[in-house]
Amino acid sequence: MRIEGISAVVTGGASGLGLGAVQRLVAGGARVVIADLPGSPGKAVADELGAAVRFVPADVTEPDQLGAAITAAQQNGPLRAVVHCAGIGNAIRVVDRDGNPGELEGFEKVVRVNLIGSYNALRLGAAAIAATDPADGSDGERGAVVMTASVAAYEGQIGQIAYSASKGGVVAMTICAARDLAGRGVRVNTIAPGLMDTPLLGTLREDIRASLAATVPHPRRLGSAQEYGNTARFILENSYVNGETIRLDGAIRMAPR
Question: Annotated active-site positions, please?
Fold first, then answer.
């Protein structure tokens, strides 16, 4: 699928991995709608990137808000791509340090944002893409959805029970959704990042960041938002990549803690 001239939505696109995806899509000639929370720097990012980018405030768990972002993208032309990056994390143990059962409310919140939010973006985005005509010169392809999981889906660390469960659900949805949407010419893939240099890790002390980077086999550093964006763009452009979860992690396999 050609990136030039397509219309796309990137959730969580105001910062971190989402911003990396926005930048790579814009560099390829796409018109992008950033769907992010009202308190995010989405408007400032859109203003900086120019006329090809628009910000629409949206909570990914709210169908009407995310639907408005998709509608805005459709005003730029047929929607061909949704890159879903929005997500949260927290620290929950199955049994806490005092022997009490782990928190249920926090678990539900992470699953709601990360898993239900992913399904919401997938279903709304896929329906909009499926309503378009096949792209010129394609094998009947109308577009693609890229979701975001994590290596925690495979090697969740102590305290990541909610995050791992939510991201494992995203991985599990990927092949099922790709098969479901194959007849409509819509591909679905997922990126599972490892230790990435995002605003969240940017709050840590430099010695802690260096310690984390040293655990990555090669290259021995944190991954970048640009590398995530490169991967998302590769997935969108390569029409034979479908139903796949691609680890983007420098060959790391997470230790228990």
Answer: 163
